Amino acid sequence: xxxTTTAEHTTLARTVTDVLQPRNALLAGMLGIGLAAAGDWxxxxxxxLGALCAGLIPAGYIEWERGRGTWGDRHxxxxxxxxxxxxxxxxxxGAGSVVMVLGNAPGGILVAMLAxxxxxxxxxxxxxxxxxxxxxxxxxxVVALLAVVHSPWWLAAYALTVAVCWSRVALGYHTVxxxxxxxxxxxxxxxxxxxx
Length: 196
Prior knowledge:
The protein is an all-alpha fold. It is built from nine helices and no strands.
């Protein structure tokens, strides 16, 4: 591969990973899940709360720590430094879920929040011994949850999950196995709907 082709390849991978990063995927996905759960515009408010707690607050925490010099960038490639992020995510999703329960949020959005909370516990547990792709897990979870609450046609959006997996490997942040494991864990979030 020529130097120009390699640079273009890296630029494309960087664009994919930045555009489809967890906070963006969760913002779009949780709005859609909230809308489906409520059946009217109020679901967008619940979905935004879900996106705020599951994606935007954790992303803000990462940026804050990055600004302090704790991490080089939002990717936190050293798995041994990731535990605080998972605890912030768990706390934020937990707090959002409590607000949803107290506010009588539609069941579907609450189930999605709890599924993401359980997924985060899985990511934390695996991360203690092996690096797993959070970006791939979130991309997969969003697609899987949208497919469950809206329509199986959403499964076509797994092309975006594949793009996220590819970008993470292309940038050298993860191996293929780490992205596949993340995507599989994300897809498992739909078990909450099967059991519920």
